[in-house]
Design goal:
single chain; 259 residues; alpha/beta; Glutaredoxin; 2 domains; 5-stranded mixed β-sheet
C-alpha cells in the first residue's frame, strides 16, 4: 500500500509541477540593463529589434500572456520597456520590463509617446476609412466606390520628411512585386502642392499614385502625427493594418494577399 501511495504522490507532484511551470519564452535579444544604458543604446535597440506594429505575443512582467492593447496601454504609461525575447519558433514575443527610479527621463518620455502612438494606430484597425475623394496628379479620382473590391495600400507623407523619402526605393520594389495583382491599388497622400510634387518626383521617381494637398485630410480626419504612416484597407473597406515603416508594411501586405 505504501508503495502505491508513494507512486501516486510522485505522479501528483510531477503533474502539478508541469501545470504550474511557466513556459520558456526565451532570453532577451538585448538585456534591459544594456538597452537602458543611455539614449543612444535605447534608440539603437528600438530601431534594430522592435516593431510593435507586427503581430506578436504580449507578455506582462510575470511572463503571463496579455492582449496587445493591454500591453500598449502599459507601455504608454512610460513605466515599462518592451523587451523582445529570442524566439524558438516563428512567433515574436515581447515582455514588459518595469523601469526603476534610475531610468533616464528622456527614455521614459520616449517610451510613453511610443506607446500612445502605437495604441492609437492599433485602435484604427478594424474601422472603416473615412469617406474620401482623392484626385491624383494625373486627374484620376479615387473614392470608396471606385476602390470597392480592391486592396488599397495608402501612404501618408510629405516632401520634407526624410524617412518618407528614404523608404521610397523599397516601396517601389514592393509595387513591382505586385504589378500583376490588379486588385491592389498603391496610393499616396502628400501635404505638398501639385507643382511641388511634380518637380520633386522628376528627381525621386515613386511608383505609387500621388495625391497632392492632403494635409487637412491626414491631420484633421485621420488625426496623424507621425510620418510616414501606411494603411492597408481590405476589399470590404476596413482598415486591417496601420504601420510606420516599409518593412512592417511589406510583411502585413504579404499576409493579406495570402488569405
Amino acid at each position: 500500500m505504501k508503495k502505491y501511495f508513494a507512486y501516486f504522490l510522485l505522479l501528483f507532484l510531477l503533474t502539478f509541477t508541469s501545470c504550474t511551470q511557466k513556459p520558456d519564452y526565451g532570453n532577451p535579444v538585448v538585456k534591459p540593463v544594456a538597452i537602458l544604458k543611455d539614449m543612444i543604446s535605447f534608440l539603437t535597440y528600438q530601431e534594430r529589434n522592435v516593431r510593435l506594429s507586427d503581430d506578436f505575443t504580449a507578455l506582462n512582467t510575470d511572463f503571463e500572456i496579455i492582449t496587445k492593447e493591454s500591453f500598449l496601454k502599459l507601455l504608454s504609461s512610460g513605466e515599462y520597456l518592451p523587451v523582445r525575447l529570442i524566439s524558438k519558433d516563428s512567433i515574436s514575443y515581447y515582455r514588459l520590463y518595469q523601469l526603476d527610479g534610475s531610468a533616464n527621463a528622456d527614455i521614459r518620455l520616449t517610451l510613453k509617446s511610443w506607446g500612445i502612438r502605437e495604441l492609437a494606430l492599433l485602435k484604427l484597425e478594424g474601422t472603416s476609412l473615412p469617406d474620401f475623394n482623392f484626385i491624383d496628379l494625373q486627374g484620376n479620382v479615387f473614392t470608396k466606390e471606385t476602390t470597392k473590391g480592391k486592396i488599397l495600400v495608402l501612404k501618408c507623407w510629405y516632401i520634407g520628411c526624410q524617412a518618407c523619402v528614404k523608404e521610397m526605393p523599397d516601396l517601389n520594389d514592393m509595387v513591382n512585386q505586385y504589378k500583376d495583382h490588379k486588385d491592389i491599388l498603391f496610393v499616396s497622400l502628400a501635404f505638398d502642392s501639385k507643382d511641388e510634387l511634380t518637380a520633386f518626383l522628376r528627381e525621386k521617381p515613386f511608383l505609387y499614385t500621388v495625391v497632392p494637398d492632403q494635409q487637412d485630410f491626414m491631420t484633421n480626419v485621420l488625426h496623424l502625427h507621425t510620418y510616414p504612416t501606411h494603411f492597408i484597407i481590405n476589399k470590404q473597406g476596413k482598415i486591417i493594418k496601420v504601420v510606420n515603416d516599409s518593412k512592417a508594411l511589406v510583411v502585413a501586405l504579404k499576409k493579406e494577399t495570402l488569405k
